[in-house]
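Q: Given only this backbone (281 positions), what sequence would you predict?
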């Protein structure tokens, strides 16, 4: 699980790039405003949502103008209602407007990810399953979106290709079988989790015998999932994947699998509708 503290060092560079692509050689429209003019801005959500992205917003305003003052009314993970004020910003009118788009892009995207995650987490409330994200993230926002997933009440799968094995069909074929793939993984990186994807009960037995830590059940029926839970209890963890829909999510959770991975947590998120309005003075 990614924590807020673990990703702080990544935020300045992400913000710097976002500002570079937006501002370029300068905000020519903001230059229409007298340099000495100040303003207060009110930022609201136009819909119910889970907030995420405060640290990115703070960094955007800091990099544009360190003298801009922000007064947050909410925190990451808070649920807000339509027309609720998220924060106030005060300072140079020019710089408030220059920072607006980059700041709201981060906030609306990460809040959208957190909001989708809460939607799915609510659907399995009361079960013991953990909903996991995937690597289907927006390029450059992997860590940010995975943090947002946790703000919405779901959990992180592996962060990337470096921190855990996920041996899938193509790996198995290239390695010469499930046994060989798992054995090589444990030899190459002792101590790192080894997960293998299986498509049949025969492959499930092979993965268990080879010592997989986690077994991903790819498009198994509900009955096959229940049988797999009985077979693997206390030996390996089970993850359901593939063909997950709003309608099938809870029945799958109720089979007793440990995890369900859902690419939609980060892939299908819809940006939260936000608005910033300036108030003179």
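A: Predicted residues:
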């Amino acid at each position: 699980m990614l924590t807020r503290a673990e990703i702080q060092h990544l935020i300045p560079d992400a913000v710097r790039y976002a500002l570079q692509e937006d501002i370029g050689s300068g905000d020519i429209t903001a230059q229409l405003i007298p340099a000495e003019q100040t303003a207060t801005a009110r930022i609201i959500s136009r819909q119910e949502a889970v907030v995420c992205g405060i640290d990115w917003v703070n960094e955007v305003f800091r990099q544009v103008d360190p003298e801009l003052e922000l007064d947050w009314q909410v925190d990451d993970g808070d649920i807000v209602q339509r027309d609720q004020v998220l924060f106030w910003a005060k300072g140079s009118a020019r710089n408030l407007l220059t920072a607006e788009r980059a700041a709201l892009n981060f906030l609306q995207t990460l809040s959208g990810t957190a909001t989708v995650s809460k939607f799915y987490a609510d659907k399995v409330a009361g079960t013991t399953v953990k909903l996991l994200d995937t690597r289907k993230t927006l390029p450059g926002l992997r860590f940010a979106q995975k943090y947002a997933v946790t703000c919405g009440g779901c959990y992180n799968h592996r962060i990337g290709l470096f921190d855990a094995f996920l041996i899938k069909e193509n790996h198995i074929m290239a390695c010469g079988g499930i046994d060989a793939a798992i054995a090589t993984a444990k030899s190459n990186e002792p101590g790192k989790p080894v997960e293998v994807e299986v498509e049949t009960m025969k492959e499930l037995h092979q993965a268990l015998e080879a010592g997989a830590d986690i077994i991903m059940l790819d498009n198994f029926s509900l009955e096959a999932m229940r049988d797999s839970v009985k077979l693997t209890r206390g030996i390996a963890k089970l993850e359901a994947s593939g063909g997950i829909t709003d309608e099938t999510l809870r029945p799958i959770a109720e089979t007793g699998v440990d995890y369900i991975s859902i690419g939609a947590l980060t892939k299908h998120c819809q940006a939260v509708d936000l608005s910033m309005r300036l108030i003179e003075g």
